[in-house]
Amino acid sequence: AKGSITPTMRFVFVVLVAAARAGTAAALSTGPTSKTTLKASATATPPAKREPRWDDHMPITGDAPESLVRGVDGNESMRRRMEAMLREGQLSITKAIEELDGEATFSQDAWTRENGGGGISMVLKDGGVFEKAGCSLSVVYGEMPQEALAAATDRGVDRAAGLKPGEKVPFFACGLSSVMHPRNPMAPTMHFNYRYFETDGGVWWFGGGTDVTPSYLIEEDIKHFHQTYKDVCDKHDPEYYPKFKKWADEYFLIKHRGETRGLGGIFFDDQNDKDPDAHFNFAKDALNAVVPAYVPIVAKRANSDFTPEQKAWQQMRRGRYVEFNLVYDRGTVFGLKTGGRIESILMSLPETARWEYNHIPEPGSPEAEILDCFKNPRDWVEPPLSPSRPPPSKQTPRRRVFSVAAIAGAATPHASAPVSRRRHGVVGPCLGLGFRVGSRKKIPSSSAADVARSCDT
Q: Does 191 participate in catalysis according to the annotation?
């Protein structure tokens, strides 16, 4: 009966009729007798080849391949030699970090790219000493926009000479990049990257460096780090260390903050003014110096006491780390512009960071002390005495440096007692990040000494 049809039923009926009509029309338009479809298929052009994308990477099951370099016979080419050297360094460095951490191990995942190359990423997380540590090897083939090539090299260096505007640059790149983020605010973060580029036009160059990013200034640690790399540089060229140290201070500048990311180390790029073997040997020695330069420092500081406020300061400095990596870092820009694997590109970022509005350290505090270093880079290795330079006893006393004990117990704007080094499950009330305060693992003193000794030999 007409009166039994409700408004709801009428609405449902209308929707069903409309859907049926739409389905019939779609079937007719896609059927074998559709003139529109036949005409379109006759004139259609094949889809244009798209650019490499972040999701083009295919995982490798089982063991990683012996080599990701293609189209090269034998192991004498610089491409193969660089890949082999970096893979060896990746394994030796991750082994040393695992031994120091004592709780977590590195997971490994390998992948390939459709147009050639691939990579091997090794990541440690939620360890006893390290919140996160990553070390990623990449072998990349492809064509990149000229602006991507410019982002991967020193500003003002033209590696696309002879190409027309807009023309892609065929390239090969092989590099090893790593970042280590310790739990303890007294233990610094460390980053390194060593790489080799070639273009099909015959242009090649080396780049890389190692740098350290502490949250608190412990001068003996920074001197040890810089002296280790000065010794490596001096072995190859006495001009390397002052040049590459200055380059690091300039490159790792967070321009919008007017401060550096950390306390530097060495950085170099576009190196091809010597025999390729000379540059290769320097990169190899610099990579091999990562463990003796860094591991003894973390072994000494992993058990230092610290307060929730000092942990918060570490998180704020990690916020600066994120700012630099996402805005200025050449490796990040290059990876994003060439369809790199996102998980590997962003591996360098810490798991937690903090941005506090308009935070200004209290004058005279350890936080203010290191912030001054970020704003005014210093020389950490004393130059040799010259006849015109007075001996140390007659020089103006240097600014006081806070010891580990002083830092760990220093008063801060929200002072509280130092927490124990062992796991307590205490959550810093002012942080809101949900991490535990205090080192999760106490390294026996004999273990720390053994690590330091092994790195010295």
A: yes
What is the rounded CA–CA span in Å between residue 309 and residue 418? 10
Q: What is the pLDDT of residues 34-83, one digit of tens each?
A: 444 434 444 445 445 555 554 456 766 767 778 888 776 656 799 999 99
H-assigned helices in 128-275: 146-151, 219-236, 240-251
The answer to whether the CB of 243 falls within 8 A of the CB of 233 is: no
Q: What is the pTM of this model?
A: 0.72
For the CA atoms of 338, 323, 190, 216, what is the dihedral angle to 10 degrees?
Answer: 180
CA distance 197 to 412: 47
Q: pLDDT tens digit string along 137-153?
A: 999 887 777 666 666 55
- Spatial neighbors of 180 by CB under 8 A, at least 6 apart, are 97, 130, 133, 189, 190, 191, 294, 298
Q: Max Cα separation, the chain?
A: 116
The three-state DSSP-derived secondary structure of 105-163 is CCEEEEEECCCCEEEEEEEEECCCCEEEEEEEEEEEEEEECHHHHHHCCCCCCCCCCCC
What six digits make up the tokens of 216? 């608190």
Burial (CB < 10 A; 0-12, 13-18, 19+), residue 375, is: exposed
Give the span between the Cα atoms of 281 and 268, in whole angstroms: 14
Residue type, 232: V
**Catalytic hit among 57, 181, 191, 226:** 191
